[in-house]
Backbone:
């Protein structure tokens, strides 16, 4: 069954701006799905419609087979939402925020307490349970939004930029938390501007741009689209003369740093063989740029399409 | 357990959660929510009841102090039930935590019932407080406790609904004080809180008859003192009609997401 099935979804805001121009998207149950796109692409609008915060203009939304128009209560019960912007009553204590949310979903108080404690502990907020919301840091509020979204144990968790403004350590722990959650069967859809995050967490992605789906594919297939890779090599000692290596384009960044652009037909083994033959020793290497990032920029610019759909 | 029964339990839990949250909200800030009405009415009792009242003599056959008690109680009920819903719901819109409810499967009518009951709770708490203050100044012989309570309840419901509608349309904190200042206060003062409309010329008596607050004050006065300028049945009917109309309108606003969904 698909966790999410969206057909011909459009949204025109008051004032006439068309934020979504006919979105078709299906997300399988159990998937870990990334929704990428530049600022203003329509990601939050899309998520807002699915989670009943924004009225759609036309189109159809189904969540685990329930139609949003025909059975909104069933749809809402399936979804947990972590919105992009904080939406808390800042004068309530942390624990009460989670308890109230559980109550809104109809979870009896006693059960709600058990669950609130479990998720607050898991997200490292239990010590803060009696503190007023406004005393939490931004990263803590982000984590609390996750705890709050999970308290009714949704089958589909939707996170709109969950790691914006979160430090590296907590980001990593959030990632492993989300991975575990997904492994236990929760379908997850997230938007992010950190492509490393999408690459490390998600199996499938959609790129949304100007209110349309520009690409819907798996991360693996997407990475395959890259036909060249660029590496930066740190060399041991200076090299005076750039050798000619067939299939590799070399360029000095400085005396000890070499940039190599490599066609996908070639291998790194081949590169090192050729370098060794020319007496060049390499200390370390790295990808010049997150590969997904480059691809993303190409897609958003429409260049990849212009190249004739190199897929 | 059947699915249908499950659902009703869920609704009940949701309703309780909203109501509890609302009661906690106004209790935590009772100095801003409950105390002001108590102070104001105490002043009214002292000034109009004691100092000036003695010179006025009787109204409808009652000591002036006794005559104004029902009106002052209802004034507290009206302002507080309205204020509670308008500021609570507007804040939840302003800080966006209304989204917590919008994403949840709570039906619109449960959300409305929760907020309105919160307003009613505050209205009744203040009403009870004002009656307690009144007991300090005068001996009350209650004519019908049932009518008194029912009128309080219905009045609080009606004005909670009014506060809700105001909050839905409000776009700033200023917008939530306009109606209380320019509509509620004149309506209550002209609703026969301080005088019997018998004192008015015929024309103004007629005008007063379209003021819903007049019916509430008189019905409440009947409950307390056993006298009224207007028939009690008409008062109940009138309030009920207003409640039904405003509730239907509120539900329509919620269903369309006016003011809360883009
Ligand atoms: N309430 C609104 N009224 C009018 N236009 C809106 C409203 N909300 C969003 N928009 C417009 O719709 C477009 C899509 O906005 P949206 O928030 O969905 O983008 P996004 O992809 O989430 O961007 P970001 O990455 O910055 O969060 C933008 O051009 C935005 O200005
Ligand atoms: Mg967004």
Residues:
């Amino acid at each position: 069954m698909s966790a999410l099935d969206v057909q011909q979804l459009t949204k025109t805001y008051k004032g006439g701006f068309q934020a979504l121009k006919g979105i078709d998207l299906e997300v399988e149950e159990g998937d870990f799905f990334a929704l990428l796109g530049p600022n203003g692409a329509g990601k939050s609008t899309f998520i807002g419609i699915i989670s009943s915060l924004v009225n759609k203009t036309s189109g159809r939304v189904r969540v685990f087979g329930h139609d949003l128009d025909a059975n909104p209560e069933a749809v809402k019960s399936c979804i947990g939402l972590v919105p992009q912007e904080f939406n808390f009553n800042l004068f309530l204590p942390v624990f009460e925020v989670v308890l109230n949310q559980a109550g809104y979903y109809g979870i009896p108080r006693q059960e709600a307490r058990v669950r609130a404690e479990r998720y607050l502990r898991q997200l490292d907020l239990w010590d803060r349970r009696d503190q007023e919301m406004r005393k939490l840091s931004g990263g803590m509020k982000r984590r609390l939004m996750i705890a709050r979204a999970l308290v009714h144990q949704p089958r589909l968790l939707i996170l709109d930029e969950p790691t914006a403004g979160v430090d590296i350590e907590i980001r990593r722990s959030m990632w492993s938390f989300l991975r575990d959650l997904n492994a236990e069967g929760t379908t997850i859809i997230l938007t992010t501007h950190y492509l490393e995050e999408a690459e490390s967490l998600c199996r499938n992605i959609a790129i949304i741009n100007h209110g349309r789906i520009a690409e819907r594919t798996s991360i693996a297939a997407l990475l395959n689209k890259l036909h060249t890779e660029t590496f930066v090599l740190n060399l041991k000692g200076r090299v005076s003369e750039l050798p000619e290596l067939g299939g590799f384009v070399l360029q000095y960044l400085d005396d000890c740093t070499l940039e190599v652009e490599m066609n996908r037909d070639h291998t790194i083994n081949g590169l090192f063989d050729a370098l060794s033959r020319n007496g060049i020793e390499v200390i370390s290497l790295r990808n010049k740029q997150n590969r997904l990032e480059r691809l993303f920029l190409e897609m958003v610019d429409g260049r990849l399409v212009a190249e004739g759909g190199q897929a | 357990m059947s699915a249908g029964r499950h659902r009703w339990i869920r609704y009940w839990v949701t309703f309780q959660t909203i109501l509890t949250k609302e009661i906690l909200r106004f209790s935590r800030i009772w100095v801003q929510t409950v105390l002001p009405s108590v102070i104001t009415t105490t002043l009214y009792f002292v000034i109009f009841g004691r100092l000036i009242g003695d010179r006025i003599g009787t109204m409808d056959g009652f000591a002036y102090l006794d005559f104004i008690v029902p009106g002052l109680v209802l004034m507290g009920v009206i302002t507080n039930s309205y204020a509670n819903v308008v500021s609570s719901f507007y804040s939840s819109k302003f800080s966006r935590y209304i989204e917590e409810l919008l994403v949840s499967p709570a039906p619109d009518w449960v959300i409305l019932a929760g907020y309105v009951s919160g307003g009613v709770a505050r209205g009744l708490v203040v009403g009870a407080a004002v009656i307690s203050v009144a007991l300090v100044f005068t001996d009350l012989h209650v004519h019908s406790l049932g009518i008194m309570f029912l009128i309080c309840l219905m009045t609080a419901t009606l004005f909670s609904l009014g506060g809700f509608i105001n909050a839905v349309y409000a776009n700033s904190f200023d917008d939530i004080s306009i109606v209380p200042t320019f509509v509620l206060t004149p309506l209550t003062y002209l609703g026969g809180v301080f005088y019997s409309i018998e004192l008015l010329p015929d024309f103004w008596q007629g005008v007063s008859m379209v003021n819903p607050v007049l019916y509430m004050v008189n019905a409440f006065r009947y409950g307390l003192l056993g006298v009224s300028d207007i028939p009690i049945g008409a008062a109940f009917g009138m309030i009920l009609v207003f409640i039904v109309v405003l509730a239907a309108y509120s539900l329509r606003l919620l269903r369309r997401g006016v003011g809360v969904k883009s």
Observations:
- Residues 180 and 194 of chain B are 19 Å apart (CA to CA).
